[in-house]
UniProtKB/TrEMBL annotation:
<dbReference type="InterPro" id="IPR050361">
    <property type="entry name" value="MPP/UQCRC_Complex"/>
</dbReference>
<protein>
    <submittedName>
        <fullName>Putative Zn-dependent peptidase</fullName>
    </submittedName>
</protein>
<dbReference type="InterPro" id="IPR011765">
    <property type="entry name" value="Pept_M16_N"/>
</dbReference>
<keyword id="KW-0645">Protease</keyword>
<feature type="domain" description="Peptidase M16 N-terminal">
    <location>
        <begin position="14"/>
        <end position="160"/>
    </location>
</feature>
<dbReference type="Pfam" id="PF05193">
    <property type="entry name" value="Peptidase_M16_C"/>
</dbReference>
<dbReference type="GO" id="GO:0004222">
    <property type="term" value="F:metalloendopeptidase activity"/>
</dbReference>
<dbReference type="InterPro" id="IPR011249">
    <property type="entry name" value="Metalloenz_LuxS/M16"/>
</dbReference>
<comment type="similarity">
    <text>Belongs to the peptidase M16 family.</text>
</comment>
<keyword id="KW-0482">Metalloprotease</keyword>
<dbReference type="Pfam" id="PF00675">
    <property type="entry name" value="Peptidase_M16"/>
</dbReference>
<keyword id="KW-0378">Hydrolase</keyword>
<dbReference type="GO" id="GO:0006508">
    <property type="term" value="P:proteolysis"/>
</dbReference>
<dbReference type="InterPro" id="IPR007863">
    <property type="entry name" value="Peptidase_M16_C"/>
</dbReference>
<dbReference type="GO" id="GO:0046872">
    <property type="term" value="F:metal ion binding"/>
</dbReference>
<dbReference type="InterPro" id="IPR001431">
    <property type="entry name" value="Pept_M16_Zn_BS"/>
</dbReference>
<feature type="domain" description="Peptidase M16 C-terminal">
    <location>
        <begin position="167"/>
        <end position="339"/>
    </location>
</feature>
């Protein structure tokens, strides 16, 4: 791994990884700011800003931006998440200066034209409508909404139609000036790139970025609450999401949670896939996941099943959770570690995946983490640590349940919560 890091006088951090055997470069700007940094009045503005960045600058029209990058065979895109936003490109190595220029242009000179804003609001309203028509998107949005009730972290990233319609260019500029500052931004490139040359290009083109926010960034501490939210819909299947408060990135049990999620539902050999789908045929899709944020996390199990199988599905899933608190086999840990190692190494064969990975590590930990160090952390995970974590995670915290579809046969939350009570408490009650 050949990662080089330079902090420019402006405070902007530039990171590169040279992959000289390639002919292309993946590069982008990652901002440590997302939907969670919005005020109540700004709900949805982080995502709208990401769209508007491509809609014209002082030097380029929206069409110019699209044509210039595609004239050289390049790609340009962006994404907004709960805690980060990214703008990225992939070009041949000779066209890195053009990509840097375009990225700098859209982030420092965006026009936020009224007519373009009107059109883009309409596009986002369609996007919100499409998301609301997609049950497996809705079940996740509703899960976050009830798990973190009344908090920014629990709100849908897209915003609401009413709020999106209300935004003005001044509000967008206000959010940008408060959050898109050099101390919160990382310019990362992976591929056929020279670090010193790239740093000079970035320093020259990104000189217009503010070095400090016009007002302190908004970021309220997360409070996991949990609960039950269900929406009856006339669908062929029911989307179900059962989850618990997971671990933040910096917590000791973060990597342990990643391994546990992999063992329970990380692939075709996982416990849930084998028991729920293969052995019992209770659903066509089931998996487990663990998402980490800066101060909280989510450990979840998602399944999609027909209404008639719903009464059997949840008890089988809960039974597998109980089993995980009792026994984890070493071979399962070894398999999960092998899968994570393969993902790390395969990701290094893609400059885009590698740039994204480096950017996330810089935002979270302030440095790039070598694969060897990552595997050392995973090597310290034992069967005892995993069973202990499963017991605390699944049976000593408040669960969250989200369901969308035909839900009349889904057990009441009181029954589900009772089945998820601590095995020790259940044993005492039985005696």
């Amino acid at each position: 791994m050949n990662v080089e890091i330079t902090r420019l006088p402006s405070g902007l951090t530039v990171v590169t990884e040279s992959m000289p055997h390639l002919e292309s470069v993946a590069l982008g700007v990652w901002i440590k700011s997302g939907s969670r940094n919005e005020t109540e009045e700004e709900h949805g503005i982080a995502h709208l800003l990401e769209h508007m960045a491509f809609k014209g600058t002082a030097r380029r029209s929206a069409r110019d931006i699209a044509e210039e990058i595609e004239d050289v065979g390049g790609e340009l895109n962006a994404a907004t998440s709960t805690e980060t936003t990214s703008y990225y490109a992939r070009v041949l190595k000779d066209h890195v200066p053009l990509a840097v220029d375009i990225l700098a242009d859209i982030l420092t000179e965006s026009a936020f034209d009224e007519e373009e804003l009107r059109r883009e609001k309409h596009v986002i309203l369609q996007e919100i409508g499409a998301a609301n028509d997609t049950p497996d998107d809705v079940v996740f949005d509703k899960f976050s909404e009830v798990a973190y009730r009344g908090q920014t972290i629990g709100r849908a990233i897209l915003g609401t139609p009413e709020r999106v319609k209300s935004f003005t260019p001044m509000q967008i500029r206000g959010y940008l000036s408060r959050n898109y500052t050099t101390d919160r931004m990382f310019v990362v490139a992976a591929g056929a790139v020279d670090h010193q040359t790239f740093c000079k290009q970035v320093e020259e083109r990104f000189a217009g970025l503010p070095t400090s926010p016009s007002a302190p960034p908004v970021f309220d501490a997360a409070r996991y609450i949990g609960g039950d939210i269900r929406e009856e819909r006339d669908l062929m299947d029911t989307q179900v999401l059962l989850g618990f408060e997971g671990k933040a990135y910096h917590m000791r049990d973060f990597y342990c949670s990643q391994i546990l999620a992999n063992i329970l539902g990380g692939g075709m050999s996982s416990r849930l896939f084998q028991e729920v789908r293969e052995h019992r045929g209770l659903c066509y899709s089931v998996y487990a996941f663990h998402w980490g944020f800066s101060d909280t996390g989510i450990f979840g199990i998602h399944a999609a099943t027909g209404a008639d199988d719903l009464p059997k599905l949840i008890p089988v899933i809960i039974d597998e959770l109980h089993k995980s608190a009792d026994t984890i086999h070493q071979v399962e840990i070894d398999r999960a570690r092998a899968q994570i190692r393969a993902q790390l190494l395969m990701g290094q064969e893609s400059p885009a995946a590698r740039a994204g990975q480096i950017a996330r590590q810089m935002m979270l930990y302030g440095r790039s983490i070598p694969n060897e160090e990552m595997m050392e952390r995973l090597a310290g995970i034992t069967t005892e640590r995993l069973t202990d974590l499963a017991g605390r995670l699944f049976f000593d915290t408040v669960p969250t349940l989200s369901a969308v579809g035909p839900i009349e046969k889904l057990a009441p939350m009181s029954d589900i919560a009772s089945a998820l009570s601590s095995p020790v408490i259940k044993a005492k009650a039985a005696s």
